[in-house]
Amino acid sequence: MASEMIIKNLHANIEGKPILRGVDLVVKQGEVHALMGPNGSGKSTLANVIMGNPKYEVTEGEIWFKGENILEYSPDRRARMRLFLAFQYPMSIPGVSVANFLRRALEAVREGNKPLDEGENPTGKMARRKSIPPAEFRKLLQEKMRLLRVDNSFINRSINDGFSGGEKKRAEILQMALLEPEIAMMDETDSGLDIDALKIVADSVNALRGPDLGILLITHYQRILNYITPDFVHVMFDGRIVKSGDKELALELEDKGYEWLRPSDEENGVTANAY
Amino acid sequence: MPTSLPSGLSRSAVEELSRQKGEPEWMLQKRLQAWDIYESMPTPLGRRGDLGTLRMFSNFKFQQLSPYVPSNGNGALPAPIEQSLKEALVDQRAGLVVQVNASVVQIELDEELKRQGVILTGLDSAVRDYPELVQQYFMTTCVPVNSTKYTALHAAFWSGGIFLYIPKGVEIEDPILTQIWIDAPATATFAHTLIIADEQSSVRYVEEHNSAFDGDQPSLLDNVVEVYVKNAARVEFSNMQDLGLNVWNITNKNAVHEKDGSTTWVLADLGSRVMLSNIGLGLAGNGSAGELVGVFFTDHDQRYSLNTLSDHASTATNAETLVKGVLSDESRVEFIGMIRVRPKAQQTASFLSDHTLLLSDKCRAESIPSLEIGANEVSASHGATTGKIDEEQLFYLMVRGIAREEAERIIVQGFFEPVLQRIPLENLRARLRRSIVRRMSGSYETEADTWVDAQERWEVEGVDEYAVSFEGKPAEEEILLTEY
Fold this sequence. Notes:
The complex is a heterodimer. Chain A has nine helices and twelve strands. By secondary structure, chain A is of the alpha/beta class. In chain A, a hairpin with a 2-residue loop joins strand 11 (232-237) and strand 12 (240-245). Chain A is globular. By secondary structure, chain B is of the alpha/beta class. Helix content of chain B is 23%, strand content 35%.
């Protein structure tokens, strides 16, 4: 059965300021959803809240994944359930190479849905983890590197350290390819890329697309949707999804902008340009 | 058979020690002068508002220590020492010295090197066998007796000790390994290392400080390292300090250079309850150069005061100091890094950086890099950062499935890795990695041998020919993160 992520009436704050104001959304394995909307509408926040970023406080609502309410789960546990986030601004971790980090992350994700951390783990002891033999890892890596057409120099550098904007996005997709998530959120993966880089990134995403992967593609511009065709398009405004449709909706947005979708003040309670 | 001295530091204890050792009069006089200097110098108390390491030492009960405790002398090394030796030993080594408390118990030196005139011996023996060298070099110009109150105390009570002389032109490829062990409470050990690298010689020397005794009753290691680097000689000195939390440590190290001489200090400080460490690079010869690579990791209520000095006294000298440390629990570390460029030291280049990472809310670090520049044709700079682990970095790793504790460990490993790569000896590097991981995993049964980035390069065959790359412009929207 395809895994499902179900978001119900999700409200979230940052530093007391409401950003998500009742999001409802269902993403299934195998589907590609584009989430569009103007700056500050809450798209990135939604992705971060789904992964459990402690910066945000969930005040109301639920997130269900594979039949479990995951709101109380730590970010790493959510990842081990095979949720994934390709970051808009991936962090650099100096001194840790992409390949070695990937191997560690893959080992962790293969541990599956169980608590591993001190606070979460009732036995108080961390289980000795299964490590992936180098030969097996090399083979997997080879497959994914060929698919995404990246070279050796790429994986031997420190994670995102000194990477160009495009390289960072590509590193995110390599991680996504290797970790094989069931639902992946891609947060403005297209931003900051020139057209050639955008094509390479879009090709990579298309290469990973399939019945086992659900994608929530967060984007500001319609541009990337010329290369990645979504099954569904949603528009977010002031912390809510205000309109959903198919790929035609994206074209309509390209044409008309976002303003026509702005909810009226009465309905929304606050004025524009809040989050 | 020498016997331990009773507790208490006094002039008569100095006399008794020298008498027991059967030392020549000049050494007795040197010790007594040192004792008088010790008595006359005020106890250093540090600066107002510092983190209090020196003040802690001022309250340390020196009088409860026995200033001379030889090893029990039955020949066999205690089990923990045997074990540690096994780990530390590399097949390729030029020599080995083991000191337990105040006695040197084992000395080995490659036969070929002996033939070439290399001397590796206990300092006690050197006083008898090479009195001219010892008189000329022992606590005279490198670490003078009156450098600090505690070096004077050291000069009065030094015992055991290592003497290494490398003759002109002899290059020792393999490392000389030394270990200094303290295995009894309430003792004061004054270990001394004297290295003279004659013209155009070179040596790699590793010294480890360890302890193996239980209980809260503290012992003291007050050691001095003096390195004389003659014309165009090269010395690499690595020190790993992994003393128990019941040992207090005062350490003074200096290297003085003639023309074109160079020294690399590698310092790894992990242990001891309170450590007061002074490390110097005395660049008095034209074209001499020094490098100092330091890592430390403190936890519990450890207190460190680390003081480095790059002292440029001549033209065209170079120095680089790079210190990285991680603090946890309630530990405190003060770092004072000084670059001094004297008026004659034109065409000097000197750099210093100190980066610390704080893992808990209760640890404290203070970093004071300073410059004193007396010449005008100089390139000198320093930088220091102190910060916590970035929550965003942690979140990034956790979103890849890695649990928080391990994510912290990975970030710490990555933080240390660039300095570890500067440590020339692979064996030392590997053991340091393990020690750090072990310290961070606490009592958890985890993969203490794993270091996520052990400089391992992955070569995946058959990908490069398919690869495409693009000149991604470094995006202007980048958010600048914590810089290490």
